[in-house]
Design brief:
This protein is α/β, with parallel strands linked by helices. Helices cover 42% and strands 12% of the residues. A 6-stranded parallel beta sheet has the order 3-2-1-4-5-6, with helices on both faces.
């Protein structure tokens, strides 16, 4: 089948922002006397959107959390993340070139658990925003990853814009949660071992070391049954 479009995850694939997300979560939790260490964050909460992550932390720490408190935590985390990213470049080396190469050939989109404003801000700062046909972010679907909803929504938005109506969509992901989401939505999936080692991404259809290693020839091979 021809390659119809490519859907990128954001954090961990294009943006090297997971350490910044962790610091923002930690800053939001600190006034409540709650702690979140690096190992626990990467092992347990990386695949969640902000709402899901705070709910999971509260559950794991036996912390009763009202909807109002949850909303306040999400807003505080967003402010901290904005402050952390405002001054610096957050893309992985080679990410911008990869996006430009692929967008020159097929439509591209993002399906992410990150907040839409955070994604837009980082893409605007690098001049890449116009290359993406659509962005599916936290809150845009009933469920977040590992449910298939974000990728199903991205495909639904892209399909009217593609030149290959019978073509196959390929996702690029960095975690097993994201791979599960993409594959359950019917996409082939390329794993990039930037957040987790390749040994943790064996469920992907193929794995490369970094986003800089992604090329169109590889993506086309993933569309072959």
């Amino acid at each position: 089948m021809p390659l119809a479009a490519v859907v990128f995850d954001f954090d961990g694939v294009l943006a090297d922002s997971e350490p910044l997300h962790l610091r923002a979560f930690q800053a939001a939790l600190e006034p409540h006397g709650r702690q979140l260490d690096e190992q626990t964050y990467f092992d347990r909460y990386l695949g969640f959107d902000d709402v899901g992550a705070f709910r999971a932390v509260a559950r794991d720490q036996n912390w009763p959390l009202s909807e109002a408190e949850l909303s306040a935590l999400v807003k505080a985390k967003g402010r901290h993340f904005h402050d952390l990213t405002a001054a610096g470049e957050a893309l992985f080396p080679g990410a911008a070139d990869c996006v430009r190469r692929i967008a020159a050939e097929v439509p591209i989109a993002i399906a992410s658990g990150a907040l839409g404003g955070e994604i837009e801000a980082l893409l605007d700062a690098t001049g890449l925003r116009p290359l993406f046909r659509t962005i599916v972010a936290a809150g845009d679907t009933p469920q977040s990853k590992p449910a298939p909803d974000p990728y199903l929504e991205a495909v639904a938005r892209l399909r009217p814009q593609i030149a290959e109506p019978d073509g196959r969509f390929v996702a690029i992901e960095d975690s097993h949660w994201g791979i599960a989401s993409a594959q359950s939505a019917g996409l082939s999936c390329l794993g990039v071992a930037q957040t987790y080692p390749a040994s943790a991404l064996t469920s992907a259809d193929a794995v490369v070391a970094s986003i800089a290693d992604v090329d169109l020839a590889l993506l086309h091979r993933l569309t072959v049954p």
